[in-house]
């Protein structure tokens, strides 16, 4: 395959290469300073925690906004560059502010408070939108010829990859040099690398420098792109054979195994995405002089037909999960990805089936899908289609209509995974007329960590726990009724090795506490004001020879002894001692 080399006709008069380098260097300096000031604010000041939405907005805008200047400088006129950068920064700030504003207060523990999805999808939306807008500005048309989109986007992709690689290599060399100096007793470079005032601005400046270096050697970048596209295009044959074999085997294997993976939607959408990318590496800009070999042309047609079945499978599996368990933010995002995948699937299928120009409808499909992707991302990470809000409404509706019982309802989802709207809904459930719903909602509200499994999973695990009372004692009924809350600690208590349980008033409050002896640990549980059992302490056996008879010893009796070392109060904080245990020390502790 060959690739037509086009001169970059969109260069603007900004003083040539030196002028562009000055602009990019200044942009890197401003971005580095802004990010460092935000870091200082998060580390030293209280306002980021009192105004987290503002901090999140500034962080996302400062992190991604200047990249627009780095990428578009010299390609569009200064006024257009300023307007597009301003619009991008404002939209990014709004996305960041909304992402932080919807989170619960528990999330505001570490700046920049932004969730991973908004960081990932925000970057994707900016990349796509930038390479739709810049060609339109250059050509002064809303829609430009497809080769222009291809040229700008794929060149920028290669440039981005090389710039990130250059920045990573720079840091590897710095750490190598620091290690060399460290060997001879000089740690100054290692100390400097750990300082934010150095690492943040230098990283941004090096990235800006890399963008400039890759930009001035336009022919080199196009050559690298040509080689990369050629290599990747031949991988299309591999994934086409694999996906074709997978789809051909489904009638014989059935779909049960696929659904049991609980990740079927993500897997098949990933396969569809791989097909889409590799098809485009073979198609390139669609010019007659860039047509691939005959074998790849047939491979592109076959691969284009395979996308639609994969998307149908993804939608099918997603529909089953939503029907069984309702909406969650992840399922809503997956549905949005499947929607974009459906556009690709239909468009590529029509392109493969349509006679005439080889795969020509693919070009319009790519542009439509790109625009749709940006719109979907903006909707998902704004109040228009907030996944958390939609999920909470759906889950509460399922509980109210009886699609899920109060015992099986995932209260932890409201508590930990759906932000402010979820905690507000959980507060309402704590006052529910249904006593079991209210009790379980209060228990979830009191927890400070997610259990890591669904209510049904916890109940199944709780039924497998085996406990035996100490001699002459009984296990409190309320404790066994609440075993679902303790499955993460009592998973070793099985029918083959049941754990011994003894009651004892440990803290002198007049109420019985529960001790559970396992192999090398005794767990102590107490009750809160609402009667909920909670883990209060762990007693560890440090000497292996003393652990063998632990459970039998607890069964016959246990006493308490005063602590060997007192607690310390330092700066108003209470510190508890953790004394070293020596196996040859026979003194009582």
Q: What would your notes on this structure say?
A:
There is one protein chain. With 589 residues, this protein is mostly helical. 64% of the residues lie in helices and 6% in strands. It is built from 22 helices and 7 strands. Helix 5 (116-139) crosses helix 6 and helix 13 (329-353) runs antiparallel to helix 14 (361-380). The protein is globular.
| Model regions low in confidence, pLDDT < 50 over at least 5 residues | 1-10, 585-589
Strand content: 5-15%
Number of helices: 22
- SS elements, strand count: 7
User: Which class do the helix and strand fractions yield?
Assistant: mainly alpha
Q: What radius of gyration results from the CA coordinates?
A: 30 Å
Binned, the helix content reads 55-70%
* Largest beta-sheet characterization: 5 strands, mixed
In what order do the strands lie side by side in the largest sheet? 1-2-3-4-5
What is the N-to-C order of secondary-structure elements (H for helix, E for strand)?
A: HHHHHHHHHHHHHHHHHHHEHEEEEHHEE
Q: Give the overall form.
A: globular
N/C terminus separation? 79 Å
Instruction: Output mean pLDDT.
Output: 85
């Amino acid at each position: 395959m060959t690739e037509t080399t086009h001169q970059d006709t969109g260069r603007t008069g900004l003083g040539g290469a030196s002028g562009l380098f000055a602009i990019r260097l200044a942009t890197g300096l401003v971005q580095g300073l802004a990010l460092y000031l935000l870091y200082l604010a998060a580390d030293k000041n209280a306002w980021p925690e009192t105004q987290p939405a503002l901090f999140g907005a500034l962080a996302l805008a400062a992190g991604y906004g200047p990249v627009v200047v780095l990428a578009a400088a010299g390609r569009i006129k200064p006024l257009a560059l300023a307007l597009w950068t301003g619009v991008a920064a404002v939209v990014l700030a709004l996305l960041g502010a909304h992402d932080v504003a919807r989170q619960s207060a528990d999330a505001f523990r570490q700046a920049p408070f932004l969730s991973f999805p908004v960081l990932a999808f925000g970057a994707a939306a900016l990349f796509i939108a930038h390479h739709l807008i810049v060609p339109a500005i250059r050509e002064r048309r809303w829609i430009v010829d497809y080769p222009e989109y291809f040229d700008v986007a794929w060149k920028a992709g290669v440039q981005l990859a090389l710039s990130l690689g250059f920045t990573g290599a720079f840091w590897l060399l710095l750490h190598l040099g620091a290690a060399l100096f460290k060997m001879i007793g000089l740690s100054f470079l290692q100390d400097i690398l750990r300082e934010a005032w150095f690492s943040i601005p230098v990283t941004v400046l090096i990235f800006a420098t890399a963008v400039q270096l890759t930009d001035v050697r336009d022919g080199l970048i196009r050559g690298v792109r040509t080689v990369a596209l050629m290599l990747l295009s031949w991988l299309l044959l591999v994934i086409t054979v694999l996906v074709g074999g997978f789809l051909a085997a489904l009638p014989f294997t059935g779909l049960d195994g696929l659904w049991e993976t609980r990740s079927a939607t993500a897997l098949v959408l990933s396969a569809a995405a791989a097909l889409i990318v590799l098809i485009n590496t073979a198609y390139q800009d669609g010019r007659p002089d860039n047509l691939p070999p005959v074998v790849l042309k047939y491979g592109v047609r076959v691969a284009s037909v395979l996308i639609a079945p994969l998307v149908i499978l993804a939608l099918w599996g997603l529909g089953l999960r939503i029907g069984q368990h309702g909406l969650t933010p992840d399922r809503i995002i997956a549905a949005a990805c499947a929607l974009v995948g459906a556009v690709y699937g239909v468009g590529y299928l029509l392109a493969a089936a349509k006679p005439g120009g080889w795969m020509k409808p693919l070009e319009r499909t790519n542009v439509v899908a790109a625009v749709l992707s940006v719109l979907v991302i903006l909707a998902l990470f704004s109040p228009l289609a907030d996944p958390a809000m939609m999920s909470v409404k759906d889950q509460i509706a399922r509980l109210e209509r009886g699609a899920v019982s109060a015992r099986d309802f995932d209260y932890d989802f409201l508590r930990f995974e759906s932000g402010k709207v979820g905690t507000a809904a959980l507060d309402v459930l704590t006052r529910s007329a249904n006593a079991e719903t209210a009790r379980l909602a209060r228990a979830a509200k009191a927890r400070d960590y997610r259990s890591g499994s669904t209510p049904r999973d916890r109940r199944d695990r709780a039924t497998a726990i085996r406990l035996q009372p100490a001699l002459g004692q009984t296990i409190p009924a309320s404790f066994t009724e609440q075993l679902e809350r303790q499955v993460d600690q009592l998973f070793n208590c099985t029918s083959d090795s049941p754990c011994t349980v003894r009651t004892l008033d440990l803290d002198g409050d007049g109420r019985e506490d529960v001790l559970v002896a396992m192999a090398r640990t005794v767990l102590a549980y107490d009750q809160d004001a609402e009667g909920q059992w909670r883990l209060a302490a762990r007693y560890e056996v440090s000497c292996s020879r003393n652990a063998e008879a632990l459970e039998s010893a607890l069964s016959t009796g246990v006493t308490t002894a005063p602590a060997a070392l007192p607690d310390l109060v330092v700066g108003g904080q209470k510190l508890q001692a953790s004394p070293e245990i020596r196996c040859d020390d026979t003194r009582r502790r």
